Write the structure tokens for this entry.
Amino acid sequence: MSTQSMSFNLRVWRQDGPQAPGRLVDYKVVDISPEMSFLEMLDELNVQLTRRGERPVEFDSDCREGICGMCGLVITGVAHGPLPATTTCTLRMRHFQDGQTIEVEPFRAAAFPIVRDLVVDRSALDRIVQAGGFVSQNAGSAPDGNAVPVPKDDAENAMDAAACIGCGACVAACPNASAFLFTSAKVSQLAYLPQGRPEARRRVAGMVRQMDLEGFGNCTNHGECEAVCPKEVSIQHIARMRKEYWKALLG
Amino acid sequence: MNQTYLNAPPEETARILDARIPPGPLERKWTDHRGHVPLVSPANKRKHTILVVGTGLAGGAAAASLGELGYRVLNFCIQDSPRRAHSVAAQGGINASKNYQNDGDSDFRLFYDTVKGGDFRAREANVYRLAELSGAIIDQCVAQGVPFAREYGGTLANRSFGGAQVSRTFYARGQTGQQLLLGAYGSLMRQVAAGTVTMLARREMLDLVVVDGRARGIVVRNLVSGELETYAGDAVLLATGGYSTVFYLSTNAVNCNNSAAWRCHKRGAFFANPCFTQIHPTCIPQEAETQSKLTLMSESLRNDGRVWVPATPDDRRTPSEIPDPERDYYLERIYPAFGNLVPRDIASRAAKRMCDEGKGVGSTGRAVYLDFQAALERLGRPVIAERYGNLFHMYEEITAEDPYSVPMRIYPAPHYTMGGLWVDYNLMTTIPGLFALGEANFSDHGANRLGASALMQGLADGYFVIPYTLGAYLAEWRPQAISTDHEAFGQAVTEVRQGIQRLLEVGGKEPVRDLWRRLGHICWERVGMSREAAGLSAALEEIRDLRKAFWQELGIPGGQQELNRSLEMAIRVADYLEFAELLAMDALHREESCGGHFREEFRTPEGEALRDDERFSYVAAWEYTGDLQRPRLHKEHLTFEHVQPGQRSYK
């Protein structure tokens, strides 16, 4: 247990509602231990604010172990902060300098309206999945699990894509606010598996159409999405989605 | 209520509960039951509105399956998306009695292991059904596109898990829960697109509406606007998980809570075996007071990791300085038959015992080593990385130590709750029309859950049990339509609103998080891994004192009609302050040790749990009788026809 104590100058985005004007507000947090996660540091800020009778900073989080995808902040300009392959909830304060100024902002995109402070509405991602990101399989009608062999490499590739946690960091990092990496991860996962083939064309066409309807931007190959992805989902899946998309169009 | 109440023995049983277990031989019960229950015709299904609360494996699978059948489903989600439900965090795997490994597995063996693992406090008929359905779950998930681990030949891979001597655990790296949840989420999104399921996200259930003795609706708080909303239906399915966060620090997500179940309890649903809580042996030890949660390291690590402590107390050397003969691989020593793969309750208590003897490691002395050195030498780094890479990465992120070169430090932490709302064989609670699924019910795991069985139970309940038993309930009853204009809805909303108002009016300065931490501390120290009568009685008083402090010191900035996390948390903690008493009382009344419930007074000379089948071979189902009133104890007697209860031995 470390006895070391750190302090930080935070500049936190505060916004009372979707239509309200927002602004960066300065806070100083003290007594932060290096083992704390970024969100525990914000918990501590909120404890201090509550004791002063001020409104705590609202932010989303749930599992706090990097798998549910609910948390996500832009930390001094980088979605999920400076450490690669890390979510905001698993980022520890030891990766910051004592006394450092840290800017904390929400994941910004036209398709992610701000709910309050650092909380955004990412339901557009659910609607992309509703447009085809599944296998149409009713409970009760499945063949035996071993009826269709799946080559190990295909299963591994599918798993690499399926690791996506739907946090939306890829969108927040993209200069076009594109959801290509998110969408392609699902398209690619199901394209690698025989179970996903029957609906492959419908799936990619539907998901891409919905992505556009939601107001996400196009992909112009910046690669920022891959750089911030906490699960290291590769932009190779975007290439695969494009291939699937052309197959669907020309099909 | 007074001290007499706190220390009084529970009153005589008021009722013997009937679990409505179908007649016939064990292996025919479910099939025969399914074949004989009345059905709802396809044309009538769409006339029924079903309220499903929760979107994890149980709730998500139930909502999707009922949507597929044509019911009109309203599905409530506490997070912003159903894909966040805490089932997502389950790591190691899901059991199924496929016997793909040809190593002697069968439905009966999975059933037997589960009943024994639960220390003979589970209901045989439910457990057999669970084992029987386990294979179909794997089939369903494979067909959904869940990328399970595969062998080079393309078949599904398996691994071993605690409490079993066969390899029956299916897995997707260390993210099995995530992949199964995303499979269910996909099916759910398909039904949302089809219009059968309406998804209501960022809603928290705060009351159950009972009309003419049946569950007919719910009150939820819209977490964004703060509005109290009402929904009416023909049945309510509760799939809201367990209550591990009563300990504040647990492996559960920060939004996990017991309020929906507790409020159903207050409306008449009996709460069963609350003292059966699971403390998972392999978690990253607590480092700081300010920590918000504990992180689990999958039990699958015990397949290749060896658990040890220094053989002599107070050995402060680093692990690499301690030569093999001076290490105590205590699980291998005490339990040679199962070694590092003993069930969770056994492993947790053994770790505590080692630390109590002064052999604990790390800065706090409350940790043991989980060492991969031997496995790395035997299998090489690439194999270990493939099996556990993401877990090792997670461990390093949190502790700044590299488990490839330094052994992991682990310690037990609250993880799962076997107790929950009492349900009959059809998953119906004591309120007709209110069903409880997954971790929210109590039935299948007895006093201790085996690893890789939670995912199995959640999905069995959701995909394959409730579609039949709910239909039978509706077909027998033929409900009349009801609207939220009914006075019972208005009344429930008023009560919820007043409760919230009371919280906002306390007007103190104390952040709710600190009050919750104080409650967690009491529960962990007194009602945690080991319990004894004096400590439990003290806990009852301490909880009562804390409840008083809560209602004087609590400070909630902001109001009701807005997104307000402090208020959300205060509602949950206020409920936990009531529930914690029931937890302690149940632990006090159960004068035996079994599974996750360990009473210091009741143990074998070797320190193992000592059951008392004479007196306690029953499910304790508690009835709410009013605030500050003594709850009434009802019993469901357990009969074992196929597994003879004996001293559980893993030696």
Chain B touches chain A through 87 residues (CB under 8 Å). The radius of gyration of chain B is 24 Å. The CA atoms of residues 161 and 300 of chain B lie 6 Å apart. Residues 280-415 of chain B form a domain with the Flavocytochrome C3; Chain A, domain 1 fold (CATH 3.90.700.10).
